[in-house]
Amino acid sequence: MRFAAGSLPGVPRRRDVLPVRRPLRRLTQLTMLFATADERSGAPIACTTSRTAAGATMPTAIADSDVLLVVDVQNDFCPGGKLAVPHGDEVVAPINRLAGRFRHVVLTQDWHPPGHRSFASSHPGKRPFETVAVDYGQQILWPDHCVQGTTGAEFHEGLQVPNAELVLRKGFRPTIDSYSALYENDRETPTGLAGYLRERGLRRIFIAGLAFDFCVRYSAEDAHREGLDVVVIDDACRSIDVDGSMAATRQVLATLGIRCISRAAVA
């Protein structure tokens, strides 16, 4: 089975691709953090890139109104974790270096209670990566992961971002999964991040982390929907790639005009 672009189980199809302004909502759970380490050469860039007339990739200068969003760089998403993203730990060192160049950095943290609805273990007879119907659509069932208070929910020990201004926890509501950093998977419940960014005057968001085809993708889509300028740092992400989800993500980002750049293009 392969998922059509924009229709991964667990996230209802977007009604439109136009920016939608929503009223300011109270921020959800917030904490502060630190926590970084190794690197590799860049992955291929797809999506949409900015190029000069000669065909070279144009550098993207960081401004004071930019923010780096670091998505879910947690132990359970790295090798050896309960829901390991292949080579997930390879994003740590690049993100450390990128974070030091941004004035504003936000980290997200998957933070599920035991028995979360998205866990296969909560559905007798079901296995991880099967789907079930829930009130907000089809839900992929995951292995238990990023359970509150466990080592798997902690940030990767190599992640060193002492300049992070905010840590936003998501997925803590027992009956709703949460891929996006801006909205829960019911597409109605905000995390408060959009309001935080508006109040701070942060208008462009650079996104890196795990996983490219789930939490990074839906964070990018929702930030675009909120009227923000969105840039995905492609080679500072890694994918799970469930049934073609990586290709679907690239197609959707390209359709929305969301730029994917390499970290070398961040000037």
Number of domains: 1
Overall 3D shape? globular
Q: What fraction of residues sit in β-strands?
A: 15-25%
From the N-terminal CA to the C-terminal CA, the straight-line distance is 40 Å
* Regions with little confidence, pLDDT below 50 for 5+ residues: 1-7, 12-46, 51-56
* Mean pLDDT across every amino acid position: 83
Task: Assign the CATH architecture.
Answer: 3-Layer(aba) Sandwich
Order of helices and strands: EEHEEEEHEHEHE
Describe the strand arrangement of the main beta sheet, using strand numbers. Answer: 1-6-3-2-7-8-9
Would you kindly provide a written description of the structure presented here, covering whatever features stand out?
Strand 7 (204-210), helix 3 and strand 8 form a beta-alpha-beta unit. Helix 3 (212-225) packs parallel to helix 4 (245-256). The protein has helices at residues 92-99, 193-200, 212-225, 245-256; strands at 30-31, 66-71, 105-110, 131-134, 137-140, 166-170, 204-210, 229-238, 259-261. The chain is of the alpha/beta class and 267 residues long. It contains 4 helices and 9 strands. The protein has one domain: Isochorismatase-like (Rossmann fold). The radius of gyration is 17 Å and the shape is globular. A 7-stranded mixed β-sheet has the order 1-6-3-2-7-8-9, with helices on both faces. A two-stranded antiparallel ribbon has the order 4-5.
